[in-house]
Amino acid sequence: MSPPLPSTATTSARTYYDSPSTDAFYTLLWGGQDIHIGIYDSPSLPIAEASQRSVEKLVTTVIASGIQIDSRTRILDLGAGYGGAARYLARTYGCEVVCLNLSSVQNARNEELTKEAGLDGLITVVGGSFEHVPPEVLEGGRFGVVWSQDSFLHSSDREKIIDEISRCMVDGSDGRVVFTDI
């Protein structure tokens, strides 16, 4: 059975994020690690630092919910972009992270930065849409944490995202979904 055709929203997001001008913008102005909105405590805080603060805040949210992040934790990052959050999580907690992202340009950069950081044994980058999570994402089992930062806005079918998250989560109350969106 062939995968479903991507939605118009997915196609538009892929086209936008694969464009050289968009890649240059996020690499040069945003710092090239993350492309999500940051948390600022002053107007002079660099974008990259504010973005890192939002990753740290989400980690705090996960831990406060009763989930420990350690080497046994599997995290699925939906709309992972350049993979900055995945590298932070893998480096800090030794956990496994699967990055699902639709942009081949961002995925190539994610793989390059992950290899440079020596984290390619903990992080896997998979091309695809969170509206139709590819089977290879689940090859290692289900996930205790599903993570996403400012990505769901690119979907025209949020109910489908919830269905896909449910399909990817561990059974019972042992899993958490943590996300930000605008």
Describe the structure.
- The chain has 182 residues and is an alpha/beta fold.
- It is 40% helix and 14% strand.
- The chain contains six helices and five strands; from the N terminus they run H-H-H-E-H-E-H-E-E-H-E.
- The protein has helices at residues 8-18, 20-28, 47-64, 84-93, 104-116, 158-168; strands spanning 74-78, 96-101, 123-127, 145-149, 176-180.
- The protein has a five-stranded parallel β-sheet, with helices on one face.
- Strand 4 (145-149), helix 6 and strand 5 form a beta-alpha-beta unit.
- It is globular, with a radius of gyration of 15 Å.
- The protein starts with 7 loop residues before the first helix and ends with a strand.
Keywords:
182 residues, 6 helices, 5 strands, alpha/beta, globular, five-stranded parallel sheet
Unreliable parts: none
The description of the largest β-sheet is: 5 strands, parallel
Q: What is the succession of H and E elements? A: HHHEHEHEEHE
Number of strands: 5
Assembly context of the chains? single chain
